[in-house]
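Page 47, continued from p. 46.
Same chain as before, 211 aa.
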Amino acid sequence: MASYFVPTVVQTTISNPDMTPLERLVLSHIFEAEPDGDGLYFFAEESPAECIEVDAAELRAAHRDSAGVDCVLDSIAAERLAETADADTHIELDLSMTSWATIFQDIVRRSPTLGEIVVTSAFTCSPRASPPWPPRISRRNEARRSSRPRSARSAMPSGVSRRSKKKGGKKRNEGAMPHARPARQGRLRPRAAALDPPDRRGGPRKGVMKG
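Result:
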């Protein structure tokens, strides 16, 4: 079964001051992050993550330091922190209902310098197994087929019917009418003398009775 991927590259480097600590933490788990100057370069070789697991202490600190800033992640983190016990070391965040594009929109909306964030994605899938098509017949296979003995039907000489090969059966003439009268058997009786027309040049033939 094929696996589907969405490799994604955020071509715009986002500076650290344009992101809240909570946005920087979450985006670094959705994407792979590399430092680029005073900001971060985000990308995903396979697909951006929709469910992430973050350190509980880091999430509490990032949520506390981002207080008062309008962002979609604030309510999501607050709800999960309220459901998590103090002894938990990691917290799972389900972001399947919140697109990473929404997080970038919050950043652009607040930033005094960013006019846009350019993101490029591609839709790909893993190679699938070839369907079980019938095997192709090679010349070698053709040679093997031609070397096999022919069947009894194909080995018969041309013009010989299968019925003529049956024991005790009569050979049937190919092309004969199916209901044609059979030829007369035995010796023929001598015909009576017939009257032939006289020869115009030599007169009546000898042995021919005159009428």
